Amino acid sequence: MDNKILTEAYTFYYSSLFSYAFFLTHNHAEAEDLVSEAFVKAILSWDGKGSLKSWLFRVLKNQFVDETRKKKKKAEVPEEYLLNLPDPDQRERKEAEQYFEEQKWLNEQIQRMRPADQELMILTLYSGMKDADIAAQMNISVQNLRVKRHRIKQALIEAAKRGNDDERRTD
């Protein structure tokens, strides 16, 4: 590949890869490094078959797992993720605050999930990958992925309802 194509691919996929990497690492600099290293490894090892985006996410995940094993640290949902989102316009401040609170709640709920469920939800929410690509990365069928995601969403809905009931009781 020539440099122009590589640069365009890096620019095109960077934000979704960075979101996933930041979720995994909890650190801006580590996420940037992880994306860069994974991108280089993915490009050097990609055989041109299948989706480049799926391959990038798979290599990024494997790179993170390798580094985590070396460091022996557990991944958590980063609080910094919410703080690094773009500032909204003044007139949208209330909607943005509600959105940030909802995202914070969702990330807290995801953190409480089993690792496989965490991965499924993060890839679903932040990667922009198709179900088939997520299923392939997780080594499960598309149908199984959809069933698991449906169950997770139902559990999140129930948790949200319980949370709203708790808020009404305290008011």
Any chance you could write out the topology, listing elements then pairs?
Layout: H1 3-25, H2 28-45, H3 52-71, H4 80-83, H5 93-111, H6 115-127, H7 131-138, H8 142-170
Question: In words, what does this structure look like?
Answer:
The protein is mainly alpha-helical. It has 8 helices and no strands. The protein is globular and about 55 Å long. It starts with a helix and ends with a helix.
Question: Quick gist of this model?
Answer:
With 171 residues, the chain is mainly α.
Query: Unreliable segments (pLDDT under 50, ≥5 consecutive)?
Result: 85-92, 166-171
Give the helix tally.
8
Morphology: globular
Percent strand: under 5%
Rg is 18 Å
Helices and strands, in order, run as HHHHHHHH
Mean pLDDT metric: 78
For this entry, give a set of tags.
single chain, 171 residues, mainly alpha, 8 helices
